[in-house]
Specification:
This protein has five helices and no strands. The protein is an all-alpha fold. The protein has one domain. The longest helix is centred in the middle third of the chain and has 43 residues.
Length: 145
């Protein structure tokens, strides 16, 4: 099995080719074409085609958003459990003060640096992006889509 490219802040975003480079463009082009046809040759059916294309595009985007939200919830739970295991007793109650974005950003921090980065995230109110930029030893997440 081929080795995976080491993940870093610069390359951690992922694209799902079928979704990002096929499904989204197809729905976008379909919507544009349906609007163009409606403007050029207005009929009730073409108006309905615009409504249908809009509903389909929204459905595709919402379905994608729902999947990402579920992943975020799982990541949030995983990170709470990981920090509860790794953090000293006095730091464990602080986990509940982290925002969802901070927990999601912390998932990339190695076990050795997660507690220190957690404290810094709370004291400096770091964003998800700032936390990811601060990670020294990257803990890859190849499962996120």
């Amino acid at each position: 099995m081929a080795e995976k490219t080491p993940q870093t802040f610069a390359n951690h975003t992922r694209f799902d080719p079928l979704f990002h480079f096929f499904t989204l463009p197809v729905f976008g082009i379909t919507w544009i074409l349906s609007v163009v046809l409606l403007v050029r040759h207005p009929t009730l059916m073409r108006a309905w085609a615009v409504v249908l294309a809009t509903a389909a595009a929204i459905a595709v985007l919402k379905i994608r958003t729902y999947a990402l939200r579920v992943q975020d919830r799982v990541i949030r739970l995983e990170e709470r459990l990981r920090i509860a295991t790794l953090a000293p007793e006095n730091l464990r109650p602080q986990v509940s003060k982290l925002t969802e974005g901070q927990l999601i950003g912390l998932r990339f921090a190695s076990d050795e640096e997660v507690c220190g980065l957690m404290q810094r995230a709370m004291s400096e109110n770091l964003s998800r992006r700032d936390i990811k930029k601060s990670v020294k030893t990257w803990r890859p997440d190849y499962w996120r889509v």
